[in-house]
Amino acid sequence: MNQAAPVEASKEMPKEATASVIAQHAATLKALPFSDTRDFDDAARGLLGTIENAKIVSSQGRTVWSLEPYGFLSAEEAPPTVDPSLWRQSRLNMHHGLFEVVPGVYQVRGLDIANMTLIEGERGVIVVDTLTSIEGARAAMELYFQHRGERPVSAVIFTHTHTDHWGGARGVLDDAALAGGTPIIAPNLFMEHAVSENIIAGPAMLRRAQYQFGPFLAKGVRGQVDCGLGKTMAAGAVALVRPTDLIIATGDRRTIDGVEFEFQMAPNSEAPAEMHFFIARYKLLNLAENCTHNFHNLLPFRGADVRDALAWSKYLGEALQMWGGKADAMCGQHHWPVWGQERIDTMIRQQRDLYKFAHDQTIRLMNYGLTASEIAETIRLPASLEGAWHGRGYYGHIRHNVKAIYQKYLGWYDANPVNLDPLPPVESGKKYVEYMGGADATLARARADFAKGEFRFVAQAVSHLVFAEPDNQAARAMLADTFEQLGYASESSTWRNAYLFGAQELRQGMPKTPAPSTMPRETLAALRSEQLWDVLGVRLNGPKAEGKRIVLNWNFTDTGETFILNLENSALTYVAGAQAAGADAGFTLPRSVLDEVIAKLTTFQEAVSAGKIEVSGDPMRLGELMALMDEFPRMFEIVEPKRTAVS
Fold this sequence. Notes:
Blueprint: H1 19-31, H2 38-44, E1 47-49, E2 56-57, E3 63-65, H3 84-92, E4 97-102, E5 105-109, E6 116-120, E7 125-128, H4 134-148, E8 153-157, H5 175-179, E9 184-187, H6 190-200, H7 202-213, E10 245-247, E11 253-256, E12 259-265, E13 275-279, E14 284-286, H8 309-323, E15 329-331, E16 338-339, H9 341-366, H10 372-378, H11 383-386, H12 398-410, H13 425-435, H14 439-451, H15 455-468, H16 473-489, H17 493-508, H18 521-526, H19 529-537, E17 550-556, E18 561-568, E19 571-576, E20 585-589, H20 591-598, H21 604-609, E21 614-617, H22 620-626
Parallel strand pairs: 7-8, 8-9, 9-10, 14-15, 17-20
Antiparallel strand pairs: 1-4, 2-3, 4-5, 5-6, 6-7, 11-12, 12-13, 13-14, 15-16, 17-18, 18-19, 20-21
């Protein structure tokens, strides 16, 4: 593993768009229906009030959300460095505040990447999705109360498992509301997937998400302009709250605060646990995140389980069968609503067919033997979908969604043995550069192709040189310039962010960020004990644990649970509902105390001294186990070799 010293930051600044990129933008302006401005009318409809610049500040004075840096989007005409279609979407996502959808139903939009939907019942308000941050959720509730009057939160609904839809729950529900049993309703298997997607693989996903969302990019015409679904990631405090009621099956109904909801299950669509609902009283349809104003991701750049495009399409078809012609308004948990039965049904049909077309045509070409990259070069949307603004690839994109479908069916291997066990990037990079005649010859050819606008291959070729010679400043500069032009040319916000952030890191190195924070006690408390052990298991350093065997008994007095935690064969496993007769040590304590220790609100020794933990056997064996645990870094290299060896 390369362990060279970090490269010094370059003083190079973002460049202008090249002629080939500008020509591509001109073609886009001619090809798409920019005269259709209905989305701008819909995005502004029903505004009741807002917060200036949508600015939200934490109690410590830190800005966790603000649209002020996006003031440059007031210009109607796209600059040469931004795709005009993406510019249009970026301007639409600037609308912010409290909006009336229909009398009795309201949305807070633009205070986060996601929306909060507020449905008035007989005595209070039902909150659908609680945004990403606690601070953002509080600000959203205060804005609602300011314009609709103070009323209690009668229930919270989580439509699905992604953090931007549940992270702010503690800004909606205080201790009294939780203790008082305020219903928290979510789709079946919510906790299992929320933990799997956001916690177990969380460190890697958070780093990769920096490329997807571009939070460390400067906001501007040569930087981050949007995320497709909304502006960017919120930066506040996050905590997971466990649901109290699960929706199990399509057709399930709940009467919540006097309002009847009819639910539709949509697992393995945009999220592994997701659901839709219809409210007859308000003639309101909410399709969560499965029918938004862009083609969604089937596999986000941050990583996730591959989403099922065929199932996604079928859920939208089922929604049409259940509620077609019944809704006067349709709102989702991103973007702006749509009004009118005909427009609603048309949008659902087009979205249904968008995912079905992508699925079926990918499989068709796959069955002819085309690989994922070949399918991406071949497939073209039909004109009827190509011209629908809500089908554009601002977040997902047909070119990477087809690769996700391929992966779902056939996996990472394209059946060509050359790709079965290729050299890793550093070793292959050195050989490629050698075969191309060395660094100078590689760069000479790259500069010639760059001038012709052949950015995709230039990026491939020069990336090999950067991995072979990470300190080669000319190579880094060439690759950064190439990424930049690819970003300027991208209609997809996620592609743009990835390219531009890659360019920035090549020029400046990785951002300096604080050490990872501990998991909040509220989130820990929401985890089942089995999930807690699973999280611990992925931190075990296998090579360090070689040859060790440790057996620990756990007895949680507040939950009545018992466990055997077993280290053997460099794997950490557990058995629930049992105790080992020959355990090395045993610990009797409330599970809540263990949460406090993990959250670093106290130490294990302090809890023992305070009489909160009873110990039997050799407690040093626990210390020995914990010494085998890795602390994951917040940052790691992506566009250049890893500079720290990992074992």
